[in-house]
Predict the 3D structure of the following.
Amino acid sequence: MSAVAQQMPPTIVIVENAEMRMLAPTIDVPGTVVSRFDARLASELSAKLNWIADVGTVVNEGDTVARLEDITFRLLEMEAQSRVDREQARVTFLRAEKSRLERLDEDNLSAKSQLDRTTSDLAVAESDQAIAEAQLGQARVSMHITQIRAPFDGIVTEKLRNIGERLTVADEVIRLVDPNSIEVVARAPLNTVNFIKNEDVLEIYNDYRKGRGSVRTIVPFGNPQSHMFEVRLNADPSLWTVGESVRLSMPTAAAREVMAVPRDALVLRREGTSVFRIKEDMTAEQVSVITGLGAGSLIEVIGDVKPNDRIVIRGAERLGTGMPVSISENVQTDIASR
């Protein structure tokens, strides 16, 4: 180490170990973050809208998100209940009458025809009671669906109708989205689909953040014009937002084992490409390399780089061979404070 280098304060750097990795060439494919549960809830009745939840309201499964005017349906329920009560009273009477006539018939005190007629009337009455109970059930269902309920946990993202509007059956009223059940949907060319399978982990990124996601499914039918296939990846809901545009790194060939370092480790200068390795005495050593296969944030390097070499990924801009360094784990704070 030179006397000048010894007098210099250590340069703060961030390092990562070089390692042998299975890498494959990749292309970037655009994708979109979507929710697996994204529904436009509609009215199942013809009625006036009395109330609707505000945009941004967080609801649980079963919570009411909109209410329809229910006066007509309440009256229909009352009418159906009265019909059930009437038919039930008639059935009760005819059953008692049938029992009385059967006892008289045993003593030959009643005409056989009267018992047969009562038995027939009872069968008709029991049928009418069943019909009345079914109509009551329909009326109760109508009362139940005057309140539009959330089919899953989520957030109200859009009001599609306003209070006071008259709705018809199938009119969309409100949009509900679950932001915690998300996935990334992308369309990839056939030459990438051939090199991925379910549960493979791919890099997901955009201009603001990056992460990883596992392949949930590959839809096995492609567009005959574009030869594009749909790929769906599981995504971290704490990292991504529904509707966000992202890009995926998709392999275009089979993976092979190479010596890999982060792309941020590369130092591009007039004399060529190099990386800085940290030696045991905490000094930097510049190593010339040739770059090869790149995949996501990693890139293959060919040169005097060995597995577990500590390679500088931040702070290499002013480094030179023999300069002392101090290794930090805090990229944001320590590098900014140099």
